[in-house]
Design brief:
- There is one protein chain.
- The model has no long low-confidence stretch (mean pLDDT about 85).
- By secondary structure, the chain is α+β, with helices and mostly antiparallel strands.
- The longest helix is centred in the middle third of the chain and has 16 residues, at about 55-70.
- Strand 4 (about 40-45) and strand 5 (about 50) form a beta hairpin.
- Helices cover about 25% and strands about 35% of the residues.
């Protein structure tokens, strides 16, 4: 929430705030281990294979993809937001209040 405050209301202290939230998530059950890299042989005179950089490239790709998969990212999902608003019976921006202490 935003605009968080405590106010005295009719012999009670209430926690008040304006409803606000962001949805964050990360890909579930994705795996960066299955990376296929090919055609990365090093050849002498385009005939004799003297090495390969496939494993190096595969490692770089896996490392880069894994960093993305491990990261929580904000996303937009209007239908989920609507369901949350319906459950809370409040819209984003509406004031919410909860009694915390009776005076």
């Amino acid at each position: 929430g935003t605009n968080v405050r405590i106010e005295a209301v009719e012999n009670n202290l209430e926690l008040k705030f304006d409803l606000d939230f962001e949805l964050e998530g990360k890909p579930f059950d994705w795996n960066a281990d299955d990376v296929d890299v090919s055609k990365c042989d090093v050849k002498l005179g385009n005939k004799v294979k003297i090495g390969s950089y496939c494993n190096f490239v595969k490692g770089l790709i896996k490392e880069g993809v894994q960093k993305y998969l491990d990261k929580w990212t904000e996303f937009k999902a209007p239908k989920i937001v609507k369901k949350l608003e319906d459950q809370l019976k409040k819209k984003i921006g509406d004031e919410m209040s909860f009694p915390i202490i009776k005076l």
